[in-house]
Design brief:
Chain A: It comes from Ornithinimicrobium tianjinense. The structure holds two protein chains of two kinds. Chain A is mainly α. Chain A has nine helices and no strands. Residues about 100-120 and about 180-184 of chain A have low confidence and may be disordered. Chain B has helices spanning about 15-20, 30-50, 70-105, 120-150, 150-165, 180-190, 205-215; strands at about 170, 225-230, 235-240, 250-255, 265-270. Chain B has a five-stranded mixed sheet with strand order 1-2-3-4-5, sandwiched between helices. Classes of the chains: A mainly alpha, B alpha+beta.
C-alpha cells in the first residue's frame, strides 16, 4: 500500500476510489482513522478485547459498505457511526440486556453520593447511562458537533443536547460536593 | 468538529474541559493494526477474486442499515465458497470411493474384509495422520514451552503470529457431533444458509481466536471458521481451515478452549479438495 501518493487526497475521494476498485485507497483510510476509532471503541466498550474486535468489525464493515456512503456527512462521522454500532453490537453479545435508552440513574444529588462519593473522572463517566456516556464521549471527548453526534447515534440533535447536559450535571454531582463547586 | 463553535453547546459545569483533559488512550496497538490490515487484505483479495463491485446506492447514513454486518451481502459473498465446498466435498467422496474400489480390484480382493486390500489408500491416510501427529506434537511442544515462558509474552507472540492469518468466520451451533462426523458437519455448516443466521454463532471472535491457539496451526490459511457444537453432552468447538484449493484441516477441541489456550484437540482430520 502506497502512502505518499494519498497525502493530498481527502477522505471522501479515497472512499470513492475504493469503491471504484483502487486496492490501496481503503488502507489509507484505515491508517488515517485507526487511532481515533480505537480511542472511540475503548471509551465506548471500556474493554480492550471488545474494543479490538469492534474496531476490526468496524473497518471490515466500512470496507464492504463503502458504496453506501453518500457524502452527506464527513467520512469520519460515518466511521464514528459504524464504530459505535460495532461496539454496541459487541457489548450486547456479552450483555444482551444492555440498552442505550437514556434511562435515569439514581439521583446524583442523593445525600450519600454527594457527600461521600468522589470518583475519578473515568469512573464517574462509567457510571452514566449509556446514552449520556456516548453523547459526552462523542461531543466532549471526540469533538463532534451536536449535529454530527446526532447522526452517529441516530437521534435528534435535541436528544444529544439533553443527554450532554444531563450527563455533565451527573458528572458534576459524582465528582464534586453537592454545593455546586463545579468540576475539579 | 468544533463544539465550541456550536452556539447551543455551552457548558457552565466545566465537565467538558475535564473530559477533554483526560489522557488519550494512545494509538491502535501494532499487533492489532497488523491483524486488521491482514483482514482488509483478505477482503481485498476476495473482492478482486469475485470481481463483485461494492454495493452502491442511495443508502442513508441514518437507520440501522449501517449496522455491523450486512447479512445480505455476507450471504452473497460466501455462497460461492459454500457451493464450491459442497461440490468439492462430493467430488472428494467420489474420488475416495473410486480409489478404494480400484485398489480392491488391483489387489484381487473383491468383497473381502482384508484390510491389506486398502493398504495404498490407508497408507495415504496414515501419511496424513502422521502429519497430523506432527501437528499434535507441535501443540505439545507449544504447550510445554508455554509452561516455561512468560504467559503474557507468549500471548503477545501468539497474537503477532495470528496477525497475518485470515479472520475467523463464526458459524452457528452445529448441534451434536461425534469424533467421526465433526469434519463433515462443519463443512455442511459452512455450506448452509443457516451459517449466516442472525442468531449468531455463540462464539466471540476472541473466543474463537483462543480456540485456534490450542491447535497451534500457524499456516497462512485462506479461510478459517469456528463453530460451537456438543459432543457426548459436553461443549466442543469445531475448527476448519481451508486453503484456496479447498484442501485444509479440521479440529475438534473441547469447549474450554474459549478461555483455556492449553486445551488439547480431541480429534482432527484432513480436508481434501
Amino acid at each position: 500500500m502506497v502512502v505518499d501518493s494519498f497525502a493530498d487526497v481527502d477522505d471522501a475521494t479515497l472512499l470513492r476510489r475504493h469503491t471504484e476498485g483502487d486496492p490501496d485507497a481503503f488502507g489509507e483510510i484505515f491508517r488515517r482513522h485507526r487511532d481515533r476509532m480505537w480511542a472511540l471503541a475503548l471509551r465506548t466498550t471500556r474493554d480492550p478485547e471488545l474494543a479490538a474486535d469492534a474496531v476490526q468489525d468496524a473497518f471490515i464493515n466500512a470496507f464492504r459498505r463503502a458504496g453506501s456512503f453518500r457524502g452527506d456527512s464527513q467520512v469520519t462521522t460515518w466511521l464514528h457511526r459504524i464504530t459505535v454500532n460495532a461496539c454496541l453490537d459487541r457489548l450486547r453479545r456479552v450483555r444482551p440486556t444492555a440498552d442505550i435508552a437514556d434511562h435515569e440513574m439514581a439521583d446524583p444529588r442523593d445525600r450519600h453520593r454527594s457527600v461521600e462519593v468522589r470518583l475519578d473522572v473515568q469512573t464517574a463517566l462509567a457510571q452514566l447511562p449509556e446514552g449520556q456516556r456516548l453523547a459526552l464521549t462523542l461531543v466532549d471527548m471526540h469533538g463532534l458537533t451536536v449535529a454530527e453526534a446526532a447522526q452517529v447515534l441516530d437521534v435528534a440533535e435535541g436528544t444529544i443536547k439533553s443527554r450532554c447536559s444531563r450527563g455533565r450535571e451527573a458528572m458534576l454531582a459524582l465528582l464534586g460536593p453537592s454545593d455546586g463547586d463545579g468540576a475539579r | 468538529m468544533k463544539p465550541d463553535d456550536d452556539g447551543d453547546e455551552v457548558d457552565p459545569t466545566g465537565v467538558r474541559q475535564l473530559l477533554r483533559s483526560l489522557p488519550d488512550p494512545g494509538p491502535l496497538p501494532e499487533h492489532l493494526a497488523l491483524r486488521i490490515e491482514a483482514a482488509l487484505r483478505q477482503e481485498q483479495a476476495r473482492r478482486s477474486a469475485s470481481a463483485v463491485p461494492l454495493r452502491r446506492g442511495p443508502e442513508p447514513l441514518r437507520g440501522a442499515d449501517t449496522g455491523v454486518v450486512d447479512l445480505a451481502s455476507e450471504r452473497a459473498r460466501r455462497r460461492p465458497l459454500r457451493t464450491v465446498s459442497l461440490v468439492a466435498g462430493a467430488a472428494a467422496g467420489l474420488l475416495v470411493a473410486a480409489v478404494a474400489v480400484g485398489n480392491l480390484l488391483d489387489s484381487g480382493v473383491v468383497g473381502g474384509a482384508d484390510s491389506a486390500a486398502y493398504a495404498p489408500t490407508t497408507g495415504d491416510r496414515q501419511e496424513g495422520g502422521a502429519a497430523d501427529s506432527a501437528g499434535a506434537g507441535s501443540v505439545d511442544e507449544g504447550s510445554a514451552g508455554g509452561q516455561m515462558l512468560d504467559p503474557a509474552g507468549a500471548s503477545e507472540e501468539s497474537s503477532l503470529a495470528h496477525a497475518s492469518q485470515a479472520p475467523i468466520d463464526l458459524l452457528p451451533h452445529l448441534g451434536a457431533v461425534t469424533a467421526d462426523d465433526f469434519d463433515d458437519r462443519i463443512l455442511a455448516g459452512l455450506a448452509s444458509d443457516a451459517a449466516m443466521a442472525e442468531s449468531g454463532s455463540g462464539l466471540t471472535a476472541a473466543q474463537a481466536n483462543s480456540c485456534w491457539e490450542t491447535v497451534g496451526s500457524q499456516a497462512d490459511w485462506w479461510s478459517r471458521s469456528a463453530a460451537p457444537a456438543a459432543e457426548d453432552g459436553r461443549d466442543v468447538v469445531v475448527l476448519l481451515a481451508l486453503d484456496a484449493d479447498l484442501s485444509g484441516h479440521t479440529w475438534l477441541v473441547p469447549g474450554e478452549c474459549v478461555t483455556d489456550r492449553s486445551a488439547r484437540p480431541l480429534a482432527d482430520a484432513a480436508v481434501t479438495p
